[in-house]
Amino acid sequence: MAIRRAEARGAANFGWLDSRHSFSFGQYFDPAHMGFGPLRVINEDRVAPGGGFPTHPHRDMEIVSYVLEGALEHKDSLGTGSVIRPGDVQRMTAGTGVTHSEYNASRTEPVHFLQIWILPEQEGLAPGYEQKRFEPQEKRGRLRLVASRDGRDGSVKIHRDVDLYATLLSRGESLTHELAPGRAAWVQLMRGEIVVNGEALEPGDGVAVSDPDELRLEGLIEAEALVFDMAM
Predict the structure, then answer these.
(1) CA 221 to CA 219: how far, in whole Å?
(2) 105-148: pLDDT as tens digits
(3) Kind plus residue range of the DSSP H or E element containing 136
(4) Contact (CB, 8 A) for 74 and 101
(5) pTM here?
């Protein structure tokens, strides 16, 4: 296992945006942290009230947004307009090219979210958008599939062999997850404290798991985490 501690991440602060980068992004470049398998970007963003990302382009990337607090307003060149709130998972396939904007939907409260980029299985896909909601009870004490290659179990569909799970763990709650041969996992802790295969994680920590065939998570302090199960 390899742990990526929160305090070791890249950082960018523009006043309206406070961002932490698990992997190289923008002006932050670290050749030792360019991604993990098909997982290319995990940015933990906090956007001030009224702030946001003006319209900008993307291509050939699967982009997943997961809101922790507040509300994120999304508009894109596909004609999509939506507000993403805690419990919602948004997937945008940039494909041949798409432009979009993301703004804090509130003038009084900040928005806190993860922006995740996954390399697609091929270039030149048709752009697309999907958004689904997953209630807390679906994630309590278990791994709830929220994104997958085939969109099974009501998850959003991403164009890569990656199963993305979300979980909520209270103190003493634990779960296990089997990793099939040829697959690896990345666990990103968003809040609270957990133990992953014997290693304690704090908010913002991530861990790459590539050797054990079993992943074990145990809650220490009320926690929310994402688990990426990926073909390598």
Answers:
(1) 6
(2) 999 999 999 999 999 999 999 999 999 999 999 999 999 999 99
(3) helix 136-139
(4) yes
(5) 0.97
